[in-house]
Amino acid sequence: MSLRIIATGGTFDKQYDPLTGQLVFGDSIIPSALRRARITVPAMFEPLMAIDSLDMQDSHRQQIRAACERSDETQIVIVHGTDTMRETAEMLAHAQLAKTIVLTGAMVPYRIDDSDALFNLGFACAAAALGAAGVYIAMNGRVFPWHAVRKNRDAGVFESC
Amino acid sequence: MSLRIIATGGTFDKQYDPLTGQLVFGDSIIPSALRRARITVPAMFEPLMAIDSLDMQDSHRQQIRAACERSDETQIVIVHGTDTMRETAEMLAHAQLAKTIVLTGAMVPYRIDDSDALFNLGFACAAAALGAAGVYIAMNGRVFPWHAVRKNRDAGVFESC
Amino acid sequence: MSLRIIATGGTFDKQYDPLTGQLVFGDSIIPSALRRARITVPAMFEPLMAIDSLDMQDSHRQQIRAACERSDETQIVIVHGTDTMRETAEMLAHAQLAKTIVLTGAMVPYRIDDSDALFNLGFACAAAALGAAGVYIAMNGRVFPWHAVRKNRDAGVFESC
Amino acid sequence: MSLRIIATGGTFDKQYDPLTGQLVFGDSIIPSALRRARITVPAMFEPLMAIDSLDMQDSHRQQIRAACERSDETQIVIVHGTDTMRETAEMLAHAQLAKTIVLTGAMVPYRIDDSDALFNLGFACAAAALGAAGVYIAMNGRVFPWHAVRKNRDAGVFESC
Fold first, then answer.
1. Which H or E run includes B86?
2. Smallest CA–CA separation between C43 and chain A, in Å?
3. Beta-carbon separation of B126 and A121 below 8 A
4. Cα–Cα distance measured from residue C123 to residue A32, given in angstroms and rounded to the nearest whole number
């Protein structure tokens, strides 16, 4: 039982830049979130990229697929922006890897009050540990098969489709 | 797919009383944690008791068993103090309910900086959703079968045994 | 001894909108900050406007001056964006009110980790209580007379000039 | 204009020990609070002791007096437990130092949600910068002369007397 956590950016990992007043990417906060979670399961953290999911191109998705392919761990959590999480999940599903791949993210950045990020990270880690091989999206306290979910942008939630 | 979350107290739910300087129990913070998590899965919250797990007697454990028995939901998360989580899990296992029961808690109260509580709650909710019927302890990023875990009090972690 | 706290917006009061991913203005968080501070001094809170200080026009500054003029309280804290705090201070100084007016703000929004907002609010409240009549900028743990300060935007600090 | 901040312990600086479940003293959090506050005023931090103010003996108070006497800075903030803050203030007043000494503390530890600690620290720093020589207690958004204040333990606030 071991786990790989791949950071790709997204709202989860946005941080405030006091000089510009913008939310930007810096060093991923995921390692500190994992320390806070006091996990003892062996977990590899891989900071693959740090981009908004709206900026994600095919080439980025190929990098994510390659990271999943070369992963020695068969339980993989991918922290990803919510807007195109579904597209990345679909591409990974087509790769047909014999691994349990769970994409998660956050509606509120980890470092902002009342963020859902830490809950989602915990939820996704358990989904990766217990789920069958396949590709899933874990948001809003639910594990969705990749093909049966869409983001409702007006409501800010993922729902079955 | 629906979920019951039963609060029994424990470190997870301890809150600071400014008048006495003590960590005490008040209204459970779990409902606000669930709102923060933005869960959309139907979830019943049941504040059953609010005690330290070191103060938990057989009568309390019978209450917990009764709550699990009468639960319409077959996915149950119990938020519990860590010190006697194992004993409660054992008692529940002997009740042989056809439900997935996951006990979790926290090493640091939810309302204190760097708490593991929200991660653990997310982790336990996914474990309850995906696990087979049985009784589990979900702590430190791991799902332990009830009979194969102990709390290492010196290290402050749960480990296999 | 009584105090008026006037909100005008600025970084201090920015909040995250999960639907747009932007930092925006909503209801001011200052009332909850004051409850948290457990203040017992009589304090009037006046949510005058909620804008970025870069968007502040002369008409906005006239509103701020009018609010200071009509204030029954002679100790006034104005929570303001940092970028044009100096300009508003200068305009207020020219109004020559017999009041102690302290402008403060934040480099990191109140609701983001490691924000300086609560410190600055406390600092400004004491400066308003103890300072002589006049207009001041209170940032970075310092009380600057309005005419002797500038924001160093590269360093993100206020400094004497 | 320079400042000395002396830590003596108290609720402000209490931290949670996951192994014992108690609030205890560790390394003071005041240096990180000052970084968070982005202060640029020269400030010396002196971790003098770390005790509950109910445990404070005459010998401790003599240490505090000695620290104030030898301080090159004439603006001094003392972070202190609230229960005997008044007694320490009285002792310091009798020492008749030509310095502005402001005692502050917190009703909720810095590292617990909704703590008043950061506000109080900011408030006390401004009071030390602007107050006349003398000994003051700064709590609840008010600057009290040392002899005209008591802690109302039932209400958890400082009030004039």
1. helix B85-95
2. 26
3. no
4. 31
Structure tokens at B121: 């709650």
Q: Cβ of B130 and A125 within 8 Å?
A: no
From chain C, the residues in CB contact with D159 under 8 A are: 40
pLDDT digits (tens, 9 = 90+) for A56-79: 999 999 999 999 999 999 999 999
Instruction: For residue C146, give Cα distances in angstroms to A149, C86, C139.
Output: 56, 7, 12
Residue A105 and residue A81 in contact, taking contact as beta carbons nearer than 8 Å: yes
DSSP state at residue C53: G
Nearest CB neighbour to A112, from listed C16, C19, C107:
C16
Tell me the pLDDT tens digit for each residue of A29-58: 999 999 999 999 999 999 999 999 999 999
Tens of pLDDT along chain B (161 residues) come to 689 999 999 999 999 999 999 999 999 999 999 999 999 999 999 999 999 999 999 999 999 999 999 999 999 999 999 999 999 999 999 999 999 999 999 999 999 999 999 999 999 999 999 999 999 999 999 999 999 999 999 999 999 99
C-alpha distances out from residue A15 to A153, B111, C113, C118, D21, Å: 22, 22, 9, 19, 31
Query: Of A134, A105, A135, which is closest to residue A117 (Cα–Cα)?
Result: A105
> Minimal Cα distance from B17: which residue of D?
D108
Q: Say how far apart CA C104 and CA B100 lie, in whole Å.
A: 53
Kind and range of the H or E run holding C118: helix C117-130
Question: Rounded distance, CA C13 to CA C29, Å?
Answer: 6
Q: Is C22 left (phi over 0), alpha (psi -120 to 50) or beta?
A: beta
Strand partners, C44: C4
CA distances, A7 to each of A76, B83, C63 (Å): 11, 34, 47
Give CA–CA dist D116/C106, Å, rounded: 17
CB atoms inside a 10 Å sphere around CB D132? 7
Of B18, B109, B153, the CB nearest to D156: B18
Out of B120, B130, B138, whose CB is closest to A143? B130
**Helix-helix angle C85-94:C58-70, to 10 degrees:** 50
**Confidence at residue B119, expressed as pLDDT on a 0 to 100 scale:** 98
What ipTM score was computed for the predicted complex, to two decimals? 0.97
Largest CA distance in chain D: 45
Substitution target from C45, C130, C136, C151 for chain D, most D beta carbons within 10 A? C130
Residue in D closest to C125 by C-alpha: D123
> Which residues of chain D neighbour C29 with C-beta distances below 8 Å?
none
Say which of D122, D131, D157 has its CB closest to residue C119: D122
Q: Which uninterrupted H or E stretch holds B158?
A: strand B157-160
Closest-CA residue of B relative to D10 is B21
Which residues of chain B make contact with A151, given a CB cutoff of 8 A?
Answer: none
Residues belonging to chain C with any Cβ–Cβ distance to chain A shorter than 8 Å: 11, 16, 18-19, 21, 23, 107-109, 111-114, 153-154, 156
What the block records as the tokens of D109 is 């530890």
Q: Residue A13: what are its φ and ψ, rounded to 5°?
A: -105, 10
**A149-152/A157-160 β-pairing:** antiparallel
D62 within 8 A of D130, measured Cβ to Cβ: no
- How long is chain B? 161
> Looking at beta carbons, which residues of chain D come within 8 Å of B114?
111
Instruction: Output D2 or C24, whichever has higher pLDDT.
Output: C24
